[in-house]
Amino acid sequence: MKRLFILTISAMFALSFLHAQTTHFLSDNHVMQRVSTTSKYLLLPIEESRENDHVRILQNQKVVKEFNCKLAMNKIDYFVPLHLDEFAGKEILLDITISRGNANEQARHTATKEFICWKAMKYADTFDMQNREKFRPVYHHTPLYGWMNDPNGMFYKDGVWHLYFQHNPYGSQWENMTWGHSTSRDLMNWTFENDAVMPDALGTVFSGSAVVDKNNTAGFGSGAVVVMYTSAGQSQTQSLAYSTDNGQTFRKYTGNPVIVSNTPDFRDPKIFWNEEIGKWNMILAEGQHMKIYSSLNLKDWTHESDFGEGYGNHNGVWECPDLLRIGNRWLLICNINPGGPFGGSATQYFVGTFDGRKFMCEDAPEVTKWMDWGKDHYATVTFSNAPDERHVAIPWMSNWQYANDVPTKQYRSANGLPRDLGLFSYQGKTYCSVKPSPEVMNAFASKPVKRLSDACRVDVRLRANTVITLSNGQGETVTMTYNAKNETFEMDRTKSGDTSFSSNFATVTKAPTYGKINTLQIFIDKSSIEVFDADGKMAMSNIVFPSSPYTQLTVKGGKARIYKLK
Ligand code: FRU
């Protein structure tokens, strides 16, 4: 009894609701709300089917922050935390413009003051980030809460892999682009650090990249981490920010923006040091081609050339480029949306040479090469400053066709497994090889186990024709077929579980294997299946939403071994 009392008292302190009198309903689309900042968070209730409301946070009559979120009208899908500790202990005023545009909402005529969000908003000192949703992966990076798309600004320094990502801290759908930040020592176990690069008056923070400026070429300090990203405001412009505490916090460069253009799609700068010319290079996407620049100080950029017109696939906008030297070749990565081989977004690449000014593709213009033959592999770019001249890439494991609608709530989207890129040749042509990074392989025990689980690796020795089936008690199945004669591998997820959220989801994805392949490595993690040829000639990443985990594995014409996480 006594214990119960203590618990109740502490719960009262931990969570308290706003007083009704602090909320002022000025009209059906305007609310003002006074908020004290003595607690750590104000938890905002979100209803995803609504349109976005606009929240301005005022302190001393100045706007100190603004964002969009869908405050709950009739139903709470989840809460998002507004961090109050940023406001230096002084009271703030939320100045909220309520959206009344949604036809669905208009039909229901819920007056703004009847929205359930006003009573449900609460002060708290803790926010439960132990997300227990059933589709949350075990060994893939996910945001602790909120929406995620592209990996950004990835770099390695002093034994730590830094992964920034397009984050919406105020909802689990795309909005309010901010760079979230996670770190890892082994590319498998990630710690969320905080949001690191925030929107400002130039716009929200779209994708970009990072370098470690060892020789202080920019003057921000030797060893400073310098990031370049797209400020997405009225136009898309390129901005710099830098960190002198190993990527934990960033200051914006006062001369932003550093590059402007009058083209609407002008974004996703990838910067890298080019030893051969003793300069920085940068590649960024403009419409349906890439622009290449050079610089001595990361601030002043010279346009060198454009690449892409007439080359590869042009059925969508080119985004998120990368340009890296592998041996005596250069690999130009070009993410494209839509235009992917199975609809929506995907990653194409070009192989060629680069002299610091111009990229020359060695294939005929009509050749298109895909890096991954699944439907959920996008915005893939590599880490800067990786050890041992490795080219470690991380994709976003979703597709713009349905990313906002997949059946998760408190978070949306995971990254694909880290993979090391290389080159291989087949019939006189050079292709990009893709293998799970050694750290990924090391995360699994070396002794096989009998049972399939929802977070494991399955290695399959292939014979001429092999059919691999995963299934559960509900009759949901994923079928994978290797056909040696046709040199193809395919995965059928049409009966994999919930496919109802988008007519674009139920698909069969099919890859060329460029000759025979011997061993497949299949990584299953709750809601994803990534398949790699052990020699790197084929990769296929697909997400799935089974109503219960696949427990049965059958392999016809091959031999499987199952490995658990260590
Ligand atoms: C790719 C992309 C980028 C952009 C970002 C915005 O998925 O559209 O081109 O910078 O997402 O979130």
Helices and strands in order:
Elements: H1 2-14, E1 15-17, E2 23-27, E3 30-35, E4 41-46, E5 53-59, E6 62-69, E7 78-83, E8 92-97, H2 103-108, H3 117-120, E9 122-124, E10 146-157, E11 160-168, E12 178-184, E13 191-197, E14 204-213, E15 224-232, E16 236-243, E17 251-252, E18 266-274, E19 279-286, E20 289-295, E21 302-307, E22 317-326, E23 329-337, E24 346-354, E25 359-361, E26 369-370, E27 378-382, E28 392-396, E29 411-412, E30 419-426, E31 429-436, H4 438-442, E32 455-471, E33 477-483, E34 488-492, E35 508-512, E36 519-525, E37 528-533, E38 539-543, E39 552-564
Parallel strand pairs: 10-29
Antiparallel strand pairs: 1-9, 2-3, 3-8, 4-7, 4-9, 5-6, 5-8, 10-11, 11-12, 12-13, 14-15, 15-16, 16-17, 18-19, 19-20, 20-21, 22-23, 23-24, 24-25, 24-26, 27-28, 28-30, 30-31, 32-33, 32-36, 32-39, 33-34, 34-35, 36-37, 37-38
This protein binds beta-D-fructofuranose (FRU).
Please explain how this structure is put together.
The structure is a single chain. The chain is 5% helix and 48% strand. The protein is globular. The chain folds into 3 domains: 22-124, no CATH class; 146-436, Tachylectin-2, Chain A (5 Propeller); 444-564, Jelly Rolls, CATH 2.60.120.560. It has 566 residues and is mostly beta strands. The protein binds beta-D-fructofuranose.
